[in-house]
Amino acid sequence: MSSAAMEIPYSVEPRPDTGLYNGKVGIWLFLASEVMLFGALFSSYIMLRVGSDAWPVHMLNVPIGTLNTTVLITSSITVVLAWAALKLKEFNKFRLYMGLTVVLALTFAIIKSFEYRSKFVHYAVEYTHNGQVIEATGHIEGSPWNWSLKTLQNPDHPIESIVFHPDAAGHGHPGEGATIHAGEHEAVTIATKDIHKLESFGPWHHTYLAIYFTLTGLHALHVLGGAAVLAWFWITGPAMWRTDPERLTNRVEVTGLFWHFVDLVWIFLFPVLYLL
Amino acid sequence: MSHEHAHDIKQATRKYIYVFLALLLGTVITVIASYIPFGSHALNIAVALFIASCKAFLVAAYFMHLISEKRMIYGLVAATGFFFLGLVLLIVFSDADQLMSRP
Amino acid sequence: MGKPIANRPFGDGLMSHAAATVASATGSEGNDAHHDSGFWRKYIFSTDHKVIGIQYGLTSLTFLLLGFLLMTLMRWQLAYPGEPIPLLGPVLEKVLGQGMAFKGIMSPDLYNSFGAMHGTIMVFLAIVPLAFGAFGNYVVPLQIGAPDMAFPRLNMASYWVYFMGGVIMLVSFFIPGGAAKSGWTSYSPLATIADMGHRVDGQTLWLIGMVLLITSSLLGSVNFIATIIQLRAPGMTWMRMPFFVWAQLVTAFLLLLAFPPLEAAGLMQLMDNLFDTSFFLPTGLVVSGNPLAVSGGGSPLLWQHLFWFLAHPEVYVLILPAMGIVAEVIANNTRKPLFGYKSLVYSAMAIGFLSFIVWAHHMYLTGMGTKISTFFQTTTMMISIPSVIIVTTLFISLWGGSIRFTTPMLFALAFLPMFGIGGLTGLPLGFNATDIQLHDTYYVIGHFHYVVAPGTIFAIFAGIYYWFPKITGRHMSEFWGKVHFALSFVFMNLVFAPMFLQGLEGMHRRMYDGGATYAAAGGIEGLSQFALKLNVSISHAAWLLGWAQVPFIINLFWSIWKGRKVESDNPWEATTLEWATPTPPPHGNFASPPTAHRGPYEYSQSPAPNGFTPQNEPA
Ligand code: HEM
Ligand SMILES: [Cu+2]
């Protein structure tokens, strides 16, 4: 059997009756399944939200979210410009735009990771003070990461008390922690024995945070995966451009489609999680 | 889109820039709108989702070339859209009796 | 390696897929080292759709056996509750620990694990990979005249991801606490709290395994659809595709669009298990008297929706490829065109479409809204119409045929009434009112097993006997095939028919003692002694069904090397393109690229009565 017989047809040139090459059909099918994946998470979001007593609005850092949205939108245009550059046979431009796209993708991921971190150093605490149960949200002095009551009570390193900086009113978690009165923003020292509950704003804290972390986490995985593939074409592009420019162009188009989809998902995630 | 000529591509590039600007504008408007009380929060949600849908349309139509795709892809997108709506709406409606009777 | 490719026995038949490429790749310097790397490339990490199909086939047949063995052990506990399992009991105690099988007696936990894993293994690791992964991979590219799948490396990845998913499921039996215990449906909150003592419990591994299996299916379905759209040979128009290809196409769409929601749900349940989120945990949950320390606010119903959004289409994933196989075998063995080819195709499409909007008929008893129940009842009745059309069409196809009662044909013929019983008994489950009585009883178990066991499994046997000569260049023994058929047919029915009676009496599924406690209760709620006695007869029939597979297993492996050689590349005198390849087909499949000149089932048209005209024969 000659190896020519093993060429898969239409892997580069489009099939006449469908007008499509294989990779394009493949990526659109894949995106269809992705729509259903995120669709299921969106309907979960709706179910959880309509079934909840209190749903936080504007809880996340909106300026940072807006910035990240801009970053992602920009990466979407650079990737399409990279593809257009290949079409125009301007390879150096392709390298430039592709490189920019990768940088923007990584910027997005880094900003996101700072956002994540800020949730794990933000706490909700419930304690007794003068016989009164107080709920508050805020930060612990020294910004420790993801403590819980168990951390404080750890027999090896018991912590007697924490210095707690409550949030300014209105910045907490609606439905909780509304007990802080104006003028009480100074730090308070709370003894461990008075604390009933201490929990960071991780996914366990509220179903809003659960769906927030799941949706954005899955999205971030897509960003990282996409960035890896884009970087791969940035690195191997020059060699492939010499041997098989058509194939490279197709692959960049296909990856670009995936990348736009990642952008498109974020276009919905941003208002749904940050603004509403 | 392999049959495109350099000229078309140059034209398309200009279009991409306009789309990009529109997307930025849309982002700014959603953020601002989310701070304006429209009377009912549902209205805020509707506005934000409407803007997001417009942005998504722009991305899909221009960046993803859906505005001039092959029939096969249209079919696939339509079917997916249908099942997506089925998934979201039926799940939400199935809870309707409970939701309506919530205090 | 220099022998001609055609008419090679399986042993080096598999080799010959590779032989040519190895030869051309290694050229004159072919040496042992090259041969070694060749072996791994050609049989283990092959990208040839046929080798991958065979890999899928062997792996999933092994899982089928395993799933069945779990059930034979459970059947002992059902027939003789609380008695030590003979022979295997002490082995279980050794391997899984005293807590699981003290003195060889199956513990309730072990029963639950085996039940959940029987369902999971059968559905996700045995039947789907067999019907879709194995047959689809091997046959679809051949039938459409393609050299391979559109994305061969993706195809290989899909197999290995499936394999890893399977390994993780198997490993879960041996971790502290044992495998998942909450049924193949894994309803929350039960699935999250069942093994609370262990941070990483059987359910966690189940979920990780499922995520891998789903990923594998997604890769596979993208590949199948792209292949069928893009790689059809010249002249292979949509309406000239064999029905089997249509069935696989619709199946692939179901997997593509229905599986992702379960993947999402799986991730969320994983979060519930590992990170204490409350996606599916309602507020105020109390476990063994203690309030659960989670935020609450989640929705158990949400899990059920997302699960059944997949799992209903999944039952069509289990049955559509089976219908495809049966259609091929029937057309070939009646020696006449299928009756109503187009209605078959449109019905398959209608099933595919409707199967996305019937899922909540599994949830009538959850307190879901009444209007929405009515909606799902209506769509459920609608979907039965195309199913009936398919079965009827296949029945009518028999009319006036000069039937060859070969082994594959016997299995295909048996499929029709067996699936018929399975389908008809489903109607009462689709009606809201009757489902109140029947839900979660052995009636349900009987119903869906008629669909998947004497239904799909029989179709799979038909497919194995039918395509074996193409794969290996040899026939399986007809005599032992018929013995296998007769015994399987009898015992299958003896296993599953009585379950309807038990179910109608109200015997609940997933019961550790097979309902003995209920029977002891007496009175109106009590189960009759007769229903309990049926447990014993069912179990014996199930074990005999197991023995009835011995002739098959021996026949399968014996025939690979010792079976009667095929007399030509087209021993069944079939019309579709897979028979136009050398036997076994080499890497790249066709000696020269084929062209389709006609529809798939041109039997007894011309030149002679009982004649046939292959699809690739020019007009
Ligand atoms: C051919 C031999 C088989 C026998 C004797 C058998 C028997 C049974 C029995 C008795 C149960 C009920 C267990 C209980 O409720 O406690 C059961 C459950 C089940 N079986 Fe099978 N089965 C067979 C094959 C299959 C096949 C081929 C499939 C797959 C597609 C399958 C899928 C299931 C599922 C999904 C369940 C439900 C598990 C659960 O409760 O979560 N079975 N089987
Ligand atoms: Cu169903």
Structure description:
- The complex is a heterotrimer of chains A (276), B (103) and C (619).
- Chain A has six helices and five strands.
- Chain A has two domains: 27-49 and 56-119 and 207-275, Four Helix Bundle (Hemerythrin (Met), subunit A), CATH 1.20.120; 123-200, no CATH class.
- With 276 residues, chain A is α+β, with helices and mostly antiparallel strands.
- A five-stranded antiparallel beta sheet of chain A has the order 4-3-2-1-5.
- With 103 residues, chain B is mainly alpha-helical.
- Chain B has one domain (3-100).
- Chain B is built from four helices and no strands.
- In chain B, helix 1 (6-35) runs antiparallel to helix 2.
- The longest helix of chain B has 30 residues, at 6-35.
- Chain C has 619 residues and is mostly helical.
- Chain C has 20 helices and two strands.
- Chain C has helices at residues 10-26, 32-44, 49-79, 88-96, 108-144, 152-171, 190-193, 202-230, 243-275, 300-334, 341-354, 370-398, 407-424, 427-430, 432-438, 442-472, 478-504, 516-521, 529-547, 550-562, and strands at residues 286-287, 290-291.
- Chain C has a two-stranded antiparallel ribbon.
- In chain C, helix 9 (243-275) packs antiparallel against helix 10 (300-334) and helix 9 (243-275) runs parallel beside helix 11.
- Chain C is globular and about 80 Å long.
- Chain C starts with 9 loop residues before the first helix and ends in a 57-residue tail after the last helix.
- Classes of the chains: A alpha+beta (276), B mainly alpha (103), C mainly alpha (619).
